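Task: fold both queries, return tokens.
Query 1:
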Amino acid sequence: MKKFIEEFKAFINRGNVMDMAVGVIIGGAFTSIVTSLVEDILSPIIGLFGGKNFDSLSVNILGEVTLNYGKFITAVVNFLIMAVVVFLIVKAMNTAAAKFSKKEEAVEAATTKICPFCKTEIAIDATRCPNCTSMLEE
């Protein structure tokens, strides 16, 4: 049991777990912002064209039982907005990561060159090829 507790402490103290916890907290706060955007701004604007707010759309099934499909439509719009925002964030991060990795590859490529005589890879600052011993031009 002691080993289990030590492993759990090591797991909790990892950076990934803390990053995930911060992400969940920020995600919860962001969800309330998007929900407010949809319910307080977008739904009334769309309601101008449709005649009423989505949240008030419902069907009376039996007596006091109502089917509030307008709230479901609002939840779907919330989800779609969240999905678009997450997609844009991930796309921006992937683009930045791709640009960063290309710069690293360019630095690695600049450390070697090809001998024009024997076509082997040699150091970029070499003045003579170590394989064919040809003199290289600067």
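Query 1 returned. Query 2:
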Amino acid sequence: MPENPLIHDQQAGIERLLEIMRRLRDPNTGCPWDIEQDFATIAPYTIEEAYEVADAIDRSAWDELKGELGDLLFQSVFHAQMATEAGHFTFQDVVTTMSDKMVSRHPHVFGDESRDKSADQQTVDWETIKAAERAGLEQRGSLDGVAVGLPALLRAYKLQKRAARVGFDWPDASHVIDKIAEESAELVEARDTLPHAAIEEEFGDLLFVMANLGRHLGVEPEAALRRANAKFIRRFEAVEAKLAQRGKRPEDSDLAEMDALWDAVKHDERRS
């Protein structure tokens, strides 16, 4: 097959990437691994790349972010190429659909509506437009369209936001905190008296209410947990470093020593 000059044209932009993807999937001359993939096998990579974008942003790793955004873009190109081969749609259809959506959802920018309103009001208007779009897609239930494949904590948050829009919500965070106490007590009771399936159910209820508290406090629970994970890693690595100064590894220590070092690490962070 003659080489398409687009492949090596660094100024060709998205057209170069589309041609590279097409070549990778060519059944005769492409990459065997890329050829055998389908939507289901690629989807986990798409999710992983989205999280790597979020991770780079959390760490303010701007040089890495460029590459991570490229990896995420490549996932869209990969899915669009498979869709083209199957006759579903093309990458250009994806671009057109997204462009049309943005124009229709921003009448205060691209239409006749006034921009003289707050960001909060624009969010309300955005949700109104999305609700009308869902109605056009015959999504009749208030919770329709919240993707099943989302991480469970994020999906809980989005389900609760949808329910709150139609008035199914506690009036303030104090009621959610009371519910957390109730669910915590039920979990303790289940732990002591009920089978594992019931313990799992009560634990899930508690997580669900915690996600709701985050919504009431203006905290996105998935992002909060990511930051908590990062903080735990940072502090535990500092504990390991302090142990190494004593010629030890964690398995050579005990909980009392590591807990004391953990407190020392927290103290050092507050001072810095």
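Both queries returned. Flag for query 2: DSSP finds twelve helices and no strands in the chain.
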